[in-house]
Fold:
Amino acid sequence: MYDGPVRGGNRGGAGDFKWSAVVEDKDRENYLGHSVNAPQGRWQKNKDIHWYARDKADLDADAAAQEKRAEMKRLKEAEEEALSIALGFAPNKKAEAEDGGVGTGANGVAVGGRRDEEIERLEKEEKQKEKA
Structure:
């Protein structure tokens, strides 16, 4: 009984619709969502105008991937350090600073660490000698 549309050309055209055509259309303001789906103007170039509709899962996946890359980098550095020590090379200063808890100040002067602890211990011994 149903052979399709009564007249040809009606109830169709959804496959021919393009938002890029709306951008160039003189009546683009008549389309719902024209400002978002059919960006026009310099301010919208290279902008994420659909930021509100992005999935948080994408952001979580990016953060997880970045964390994984950082972990792999730390592992590779640790392996390189272990290999250099096993081959008899001196350990990196960066590794020494991380292991010993010694940081550096603005001028590259060591801050904190074993040396300061030793100085504090010697000062305590001197105070005890003065009291005795």
